[in-house]
């Protein structure tokens, strides 16, 4: 027997273990339990379980070893089932059994909900813990961590306070993590302070700091997050990959992307979570181009993206209108066998809708079998964005029939659909149903949609009464929507009331000041125009720089007002001047621009709200199309008719540019938005001017060797 034990200790392969096991069985020696830890060391868990089942009276050490092995090797369910079998055996659990079982429960997560009902409940675990003759530090930490894992933080806190021994860093971290899951930031900071000054003399470790930084990220508490970052440096807490990722995530979500970027650049071995943290931070911070550049660099480094990466990249594509890259991500999903789950489907629907491909968005929506509220919302908002109000409302009806509870975002989409399509009565019904049927209180965004809908339809009195009766103070967007309706319907009396509110605010919006000046100028009230101009100067109100993007051959080009850094800026501004001069010749400059309310750059930016530069390959062409903020539409030229009152249309302006090297197709989405002809005060002149603009754009395309057409 001594010789077999010696051979067992020196065995290094399963073949040797099999031979030793055979000798044990032949000679009837009681050595089976010695085989189990050796088999576990060789990762032969199933064989170890077979030996345990064949052993008449296994020791508690054998049971504990196998229970722990199942958890470590990713089979926590088997750990629990083995524990239940142990309870039915003659061997009683020891002090070491419970921590292993608890770790298995933690690893199972939500799977436990069904299992608790059948065989293992938390109160049973507590009873077992209460019956333990001796509770060491590990046992206390395990039961506290278990309560935290199961969301019973207060019970965990009671045990935490009752601990008769020194509380170590594991225990403190478990409690901080528990309150972090509850979102109780005050208690998190209180525990952290107690930890630093307690008699336990415990120093936080990397895991503690990760829990604290995660709480700061969730609540976007930059000041505390920055303090924790300094604390890590001062106390020389070792920076592992998880802690570095938590720092990047905290700075990104708190808006300090520059600091997050510096930390990211300092990481020598960047893993997927760190890439995801910085990409997510860029997307949330509005640095969409940078997010896409990071994604491409990440792939070049042979780091394989996961669901989090792709969702953020699709969000960036949606914001930039980068359809080509969005399609590339979609194809990547199929090529790499990634399941199109509801999260990815939502991101794809949002991307395709915002890139003008509503049919593709609908196709993905229909193909997704399990739809959550976010996916329904994306489809409703996408259809609303495209002016398909009736279809958007139909999808909302399907959502309600499917038993999905709508939320605040849902009704933003529904009311936007009514607004964009001029569905006044439907808008009233849906707005009332928020509180009456669905128990939702309208927020500023919902009020803004309703005010805009009523105002554009000419119901200014009703819109103003709605604002007056709001349960929350109206913001500048709501006043701006009402002011815009006053301009459309020439209601100077109401405009005067609103102007007092807007100009009395601490930071008036420059757009509203311009709009107010338009209203006064169109009515010949030049003194009021001068007064608004004076107030703009006195309050030093500035217009933030506008920005636009265009994707060409998978590359996103970014253009900012007054920017001259683009390689083809000379050609861009040259063509820009040609178009502006032509517009002046056609008499399309609003009258108020003659009165020096703003500088030349601002004038041009108002005339031409955004411009897109098309950059070709060598010997190709550079074209610019100007999209008016007051464009009623190229619809007139396409169909030679006006849309029905209250409808909204979106059309594609497609230009085919032939070069010696290839043919280029550029597509521009002309959003006719809310400026439908039924709301225009000068429909005839707008129609003639837009026809002239369409003819000129064709002439310009022809003059530089392009075949242009409207589709």
From TrEMBL:
PPR-type repeats, residues: 59-93, 136-170, 271-305, 372-406
Keyword Repeat carried by entry: yes
Keyword Repeat: yes
GO biological process: RNA modification
Residues in the signal sequence: 1-22
Top-level division of the source organism's lineage: Eukaryota
Keywords: Repeat, Signal
Single Gene Ontology MF annotation: RNA binding
PANTHER family tied to this protein: OS07G0636900 PROTEIN (PTHR47926:SF344), PENTATRICOPEPTIDE REPEAT-CONTAINING PROTEIN (PTHR47926)
NCBIfam families noted in UniProt: PPR
UniProt protein name: Pentatricopeptide repeat-containing protein, chloroplastic
Source organism phylogeny: Eukaryota, Viridiplantae, Streptophyta, Embryophyta, Tracheophyta
């Amino acid at each position: 027997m001594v010789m077999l034990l010696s051979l067992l200790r020196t065995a290094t392969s399963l073949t040797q273990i099999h031979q030793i096991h055979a000798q044990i069985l032949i000679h009837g020696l009681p050595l089976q339990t010695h085989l189990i830890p050796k088999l576990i060391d060789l990762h032969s868990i199933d064989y170890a379980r077979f030996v345990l089942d064949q052993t008449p009276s296994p020791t508690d050490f054998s049971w504990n070893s196998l229970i722990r092995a199942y958890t470590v090797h990713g089979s926590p369910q088997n750990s629990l089932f083995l524990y239940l079998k142990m309870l039915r055996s003659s061997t009683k659990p020891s002090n070491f059994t419970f921590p292993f079982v608890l770790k298995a429960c933690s690893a199972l997560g939500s799977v436990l909900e069904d299992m608790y009902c059948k065989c293992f409940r938390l109160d049973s675990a507590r009873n077992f813990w209460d019956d333990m003759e001796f509770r060491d530090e590990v046992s206390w930490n395990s039961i506290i961590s278990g309560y935290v894992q199961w969301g019973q933080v207060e019970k965990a806190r009671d045990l935490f306070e009752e601990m008769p021994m020194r509380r170590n860093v594991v225990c403190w971290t478990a409690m901080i993590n528990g309150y972090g899951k509850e979102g109780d930031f005050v208690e998190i900071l209180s525990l952290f302070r107690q930890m630093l000054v307690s008699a336990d003399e415990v120093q936080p470790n990397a895991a503690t700091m990760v829990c604290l930084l995660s709480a700061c990220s969730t609540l976007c508490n930059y000041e505390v997050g920055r303090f924790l970052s300094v604390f890590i440096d001062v106390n020389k807490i070792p920076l592992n990959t998880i802690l570095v990722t938590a720092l990047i995530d905290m700075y990104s979500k708190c808006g300090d992307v520059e600091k997050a970027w510096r930390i990211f650049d300092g990481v020598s071995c960047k893993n997927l979570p760190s890439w995801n943290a910085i990409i997510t931070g860029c997307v949330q911070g509005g640095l969409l181009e940078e997010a896409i550049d990071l994604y491409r660099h990440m792939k070049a480094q042979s780091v394989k993206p996961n669901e989090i990466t792709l969702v953020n990249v699709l969000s960036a594509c949606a914001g930039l209108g980068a359809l080509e890259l969005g399609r590339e991500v979609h194809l990547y999903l199929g090529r790499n066998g990634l399941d199109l789950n509801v999260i990815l489907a939502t991101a794809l629907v949002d991307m395709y809708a915002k890139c003008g491909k509503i049919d593709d968005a609908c196709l993905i929506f229909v193909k997704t079998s399990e739809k959550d509220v976010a996916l329904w919302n994306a489809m409703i908002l996408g259809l609303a964005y495209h002016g398909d109000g009736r279809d958007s409302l139909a999808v909302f009806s399907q959502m309600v029939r499917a038993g999905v509870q709508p939320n605040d975002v849902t009704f933003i989409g529904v009311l936007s659909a009514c607004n964009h399509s001029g569905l006044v009565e439907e808008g009233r019904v849906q707005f009332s149903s928020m509180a009456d049927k669905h128990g939702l209180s309208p927020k500023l965004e919902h009020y803004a949609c309703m005010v805009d809908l009523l105002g554009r339809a000419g119901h200014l009195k009703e819109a103003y009464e709605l604002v007056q009766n709001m349960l929350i103070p109206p913001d500048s967007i709501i006043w701006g929507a009402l002011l815009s309706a006053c301009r459309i319907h020439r209601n100077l009396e109401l405009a005067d009331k609103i102007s007092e509110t807007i100009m009395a605010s601490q930071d008036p919006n420059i757009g509203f000041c311009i709009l107010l000046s338009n209203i006064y100028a169109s009515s010949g009230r030049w003194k009021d125009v001068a007064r608004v101009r004076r107030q703009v100067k006195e309050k030093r109100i500035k217009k933030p720089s506008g920005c636009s993007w265009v994707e060409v051959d998978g590359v996103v080009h970014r253009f900012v007002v007054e920017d001259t850094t683009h390689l083809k800026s000379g050609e861009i501004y040259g063509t820009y001047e040609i178009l502006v001069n032509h517009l002046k010749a056609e008499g399309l400059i609003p009258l108020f621009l003659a009165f020096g309310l703003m500088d030349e750059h601002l004038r041009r930016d108002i005339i031409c709200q955004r411009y897109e530069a098309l950059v070709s390959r060598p010997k190709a062409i550079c074209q610019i199309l100007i999209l008016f903020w007051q464009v009623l539409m190229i619809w007139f030229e396409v169909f030679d008719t006006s849309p029905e009152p209250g409808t909204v249309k979106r059309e594609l302006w497609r230009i085919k540019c032939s070069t010696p090297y290839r043919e280029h197709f550029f597509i521009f989405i002309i959003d006719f938005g809310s400026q439908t002809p039924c709301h225009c005060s000068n429909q005839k002149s707008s129609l003639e001017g837009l026809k002239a603009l369409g003819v000129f754009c064709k002439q310009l395309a022809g003059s530089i060797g392009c075949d242009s057409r409207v589709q």
